Amino acid sequence: MNTTGSPAEAPEVCRQLAARGHSQLIVLHYNHSGRLLGRAGPEDGGLGVLRGLFVAVSSLVVLENLLVLAAIVTRMRSRRWVYYCLVNITLSDLLTGLAYLVNVLLSGPRTFHLAPASWFLREGVLFMSLAASTFSLLFTAGERFATMVRPVAESGNTKKGRVLGFIGLCWLLAALLGLLPLLGWNCVCAFQSCSSLLPLYSKAYILFCVVIFACILAAITVLYGAIFRVVRANGQKASRHPVRRKARRLLNTVLMILVAFVVCWGPLFGLLLADIFGSNVWAQEYLRGMDWILALAVLNSAVNPLIYSFRSREVCRAVLGFLCCGCLRLGLRGPGDCLARAAEAHSGASTTDSSLRPRDSFRGSRSLSFRMREPLTSISSVRSV
């Protein structure tokens, strides 16, 4: 298919379409990138089984995070900094699911009816939500590590203000990163610098995003690696068996976090790098798996609520209590049976102690020596979840 005319005419046609904000501009770029090869035309395609599966994945992400968010807000009474980090991560994962759902529903034939600004907004919101999720994980890991190694007393209001300030900064940076193409960093009518996977995105912008996400991944890995070493060292020094057992459980949780993040995000990094440094002909031939790989990155936002619920006693109790109240309202269980099962479940489901209950801390001591602390025995205090 070729709707562009001769190569000499294409830039002039493109500039006219860009000036009018016409949807045909998107057809022009997709045609140049080779994304229309094998199609009868822009209208060729439909929801199909594959897109239906992607809708199911995004719906799962949305429902899981809605459940966890509702449980945290309605059932958790603590308002320590951990609470705000929990809400922030859950909100970013919820936005990721919603953005991906909108992206899937507006893809296929609907792509070629979008104005260029709408196309940039569709992709930019997804980039923004993914960035917000990773920035939130980085901030939470850094805050947890700082709490571990810095035995300095800090007032609750000061801590809360600092945490909320950093959360706001995370969202501001994420919004800026996702909307840069809409603000002008794009390759409209500059076909040679365009990505094959995202035909209106500049390869330079995609490389910038990959570098940012790779640095975040490296920083998260380093921080959790440091937490891993500190907890293991303190677990080995501890004389009490329960403390060593809690340390081992925490180490397993840290490994789960890192493995899930690397497995979900690693393939997307590789695909984008191949798109940036590969030729257009090679990209058109081999880079056809972006839908699956992007879905895998989004799936990380579905894995997060599972880690929260099964590795943190406080969140597990909140989720079970929320579901239990729903059961009672629907009349699916008797009150005694429902509450008894919930109590039994949360007492056995958690593999760690809660970090949200009153406990001893560095604040009660002037000693600067490392020792095993109660916050280290919970995923809520390691990752604030």
UniProtKB/TrEMBL annotation:
Record GO terms (molecular function): sphingosine-1-phosphate receptor activity
Occurrences of domain G-protein coupled receptors family 1 profile (ranges): 64-308
Compartments, record wording: Cell membrane
Keyword DNA-binding: no
Record flagged with keyword Cell membrane: yes
Transmembrane residue ranges: 53-74, 81-105, 125-142, 163-185, 205-230, 250-272, 292-310
Top-rank taxon, per record: Eukaryota
Protein role: Receptor for the lysosphingolipid sphingosine 1-phosphate (S1P). S1P is a bioactive lysophospholipid that elicits diverse physiological effect on most types of cells and tissues. May be involved in cell migration processes that are specific for lymphocytes.
Protein name in UniProt: Sphingosine 1-phosphate receptor 4
